[in-house]
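Priority: low. Protein: Ig-like domain-containing protein. Input follows.
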Amino acid sequence: MAPESIIVAPAPDAVVALRESVEIWGWAWSFRGIASVQVSTDGGNTYRHATVQPRRGWTWQRFSLQWQPGLRGVAHLSARAIEAGGAAQPVEAVRNAVHTVRVIVE
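Result:
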């Protein structure tokens, strides 16, 4: 199974507070296990490494990243999984493309 991740929180179209700490978290999985998950808070222009729980058998691995929004408006959060073999979740045009969630910062 190719690497894949999905953001669980914040939910799509959630309203988050400006300059308040927000936990971005979700699940990642792959046949080889997940080595890292990168999270973008600017629509994929830049990425930061999330904390990833260790693999336990064939279970999904939880990832999380603390984020403090600095600008009001719409933000696009993206998660990209990288498996232990080095393959990364593709950006677009395939079944396991990078997952993106739109949130509103007020």
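Residues 4-105 form a domain with the Immunoglobulin-like fold (CATH 2.60.40.650). The longest strand covers residues 73-83.
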